[in-house]
Amino acid sequence: MFAYSSIEQYHAQLQEGQVDCVRAVLHYTARIRETASLNAFIEVYEAEALDRARQLDAKRQAGAPMGKLHGVVIALKDVICYKDHKVSAASGILENFTSIYSATAVERLLQEDAIIIGNCNCDEFAMGSTNENSSYGPVRNAADPERVPGGSSGGSAVAVQSGCCMVSLGTDTGGSVRQPADFCGIIGMKPTYGRISRYGVIAYASSFDQIGIFGNNIPDVAQVLQVIAGADEFDSTLSQKPVEDYPALLQTGKKYRFAWLREALEHPSLDPAIASAIKEKIESLRKEGHTVEPVEFDMLEYIVPAYYILTTAEASSNLSRYDGVRFGHRTQQPGLDLTEFYKQNRAEGFGKEVKRRIMLGTFVLSAGYYDAYFTRAQKVRNLIRQRTEQIFAQYDFILLPTSPSTAFKIGEKTKDPIEMYLADIYTVMANLAGIPAIALPLFKHPNGLPFGLQVMANRFQELPLLEVSAQLMRR
Ligand code: GLN
User: Fold this and answer.
1) Domain holding 80: CATH number?
2) What is the distance between the alpha carbons of residues 366 and 368, in angstroms, rounded to a whole number?
3) What pLDDT, in 10s, does the model give residues 125-161?
4) CA-based nearest residue to 374, from 314, 438, 310, 424
5) What is the pLDDT of residue 475?
6) How many angstroms separate the CA atoms of 422 and 468, rounded?
7) Whether residue 128 has its Cβ less than 6 Å from ligand 1
8) 28, part of any domain
9) Is the pLDDT confidence value at 434 over 70?
10) Residue 180 is part of which domain span?
């Protein structure tokens, strides 16, 4: 039997010889087979992971020092490149494409002795909130297989939720780590924009995209973040700020100033059971001596439209590179001229939601509409940033729900894309403002499904965010 609780405990067991990395990998590959119907994994690197486990065991037994993630079994979202392994962004247009280099985050995991177990299903090009927009089919929520796990990093979330790996990486452009974490009852953290390199991450919307981490406890998330964060010569949008030693510095027991957004907790779309659980939590924090106050945030109605205008505009540009010539799906249809050839490649390769967003993005950038949509949405983004800054001048954290509802049924929202977009109301704010945010699995709904609390902090305040999260998770 192999039982996992945290990296720290696993490392202690490795050092005492109670377990080894091979046993860990065998445990996870067996678990992946048992849960195959959830469709969380696209490919499992079984033989390779076992080889690496054997090497790590030999190295450790020979007395070599252990890396910070020695033997830690990690799954990657299928938008994160891993050299010589397939990566497709769950899209037909990248079918059979093999990464020619590894993402910086992956390089750093490997340098610290991590074991990559496989790549996980997701929404095509990370566009979606349910993992139903995948060329590999939907992922199922282990809490109820008739329900979605959330998206777009649904596979990475379910991989952790169903015990198929210790931690996993996803990406969060508008909530794709936090919302599936919320639906699956695990932790999902999106760091500050500019904290983790995007080099080797297939782009959706470059000024929003950020790698995020799924785990079962805060010290694990803190450790992975510490390893993968920090300056990288291949990504000029990264901050040069030194990375703190999050796991070592984590302290709890502090008193904080929390703000909560009245408009968010009183929003008509919010499930009443979610609203009341969060209000109760607010009360109990106050009783414990924290400052917890409501603040006005009158921009909630604008954040989803601004997000979808800006991200689709960026996506239409980012995805123009998939033309079937340099790489990507190439049509078999004969006798096409160059323009028809491009069109046919893209028509065959992309799925419906991606096409919708490319068209929307092209429209908002087109002459005559640019100022009305794109420029205006940029202004909204600036206002949101300013307003967020003002809140953080007075408070340490903002408390919010992560999603207005618990996990919905597979197929329930696919007919109405607008309804699906509106469900991103609580997560996109952090991406518009570039701030870190975390989803913490604190509650159970009367319907039996998990949901949590979202905590946001100011830019580069990952350490206090992890500290307060550890404190909140402790009860
Ligand atoms: N649900 C959001 C969208 O569809 C978020 C996606 C993401 O964060 N990658 O765009």
Assistant:
1) 3.90.1300.10
2) 6
3) 999 999 999 999 999 999 999 999 999 999 999 999 9
4) 310
5) 63
6) 28
7) yes
8) yes
9) yes
10) 7-249
Half-sphere exposure of 263 (CA within 13 A, CB side): 11
Tell whether the model's pLDDT for residue 357 goes beyond 70. Answer: yes
302-328 burial code (b ≥16 CB/10 A, e <16) = bbbbbbbbbbbbbbbbbbeebbbeeeb
**Extended beta strands in 49-144, E state:** 73-77, 115-120
User: Do residues 189 and 436 make contact, with C-beta atoms less than 8 angstroms apart?
Assistant: yes
In a domain, 294, yes or no: no
Alpha-carbon dihedral 109, 228, 152, 149, rounded to 10 degrees: 70
Sign for the CA dihedral angle at 156, 161, 166, 167 comes to positive
Probe residue for ligand 1, chosen from 80, 152, 421 as the CB with the greatest number of ligand atoms within 8 Å? 152
In the predicted model, is pLDDT for residue 173 greater than 70? yes
Model confidence band, residue 415 (pLDDT cutoffs 50, 70, 90): confident
Residue 117 domain flag:
yes
Tokens, residue 283: 């009360």
Strand pairing class (115-120; 41-44) = antiparallel
Atom of ligand 1 nearest to the CA of 176: 8
Residue 457 phi, psi dihedral angles, 5° rounding:
-130, 170
Question: 43: CA distance to ligand 1 center in Å?
Answer: 23
Q: How many domains does the chain have?
A: 1
* Distance separating alpha carbons of residues 48 and 116, to the nearest angstrom: 9
Given this model, what pLDDT does residue 252 score? Answer: 81
Under 8 Å between Cβ of 323 and 349:
no
- pLDDT for residue 466 is more than 70: yes
pTM beyond 0.85: the answer is yes
pLDDT of residue 1: 81
Whose tokens are 């329900």? That residue is 147
Rounded Cα–Cα distance for residues 67 and 224 (Å):
12
Ligand 1 pocket check for 126: Cβ under 6 Å: yes
473 C-alpha to ligand 1 centroid (Å): 26
Q: Does residue 336 lie in a domain region?
A: no
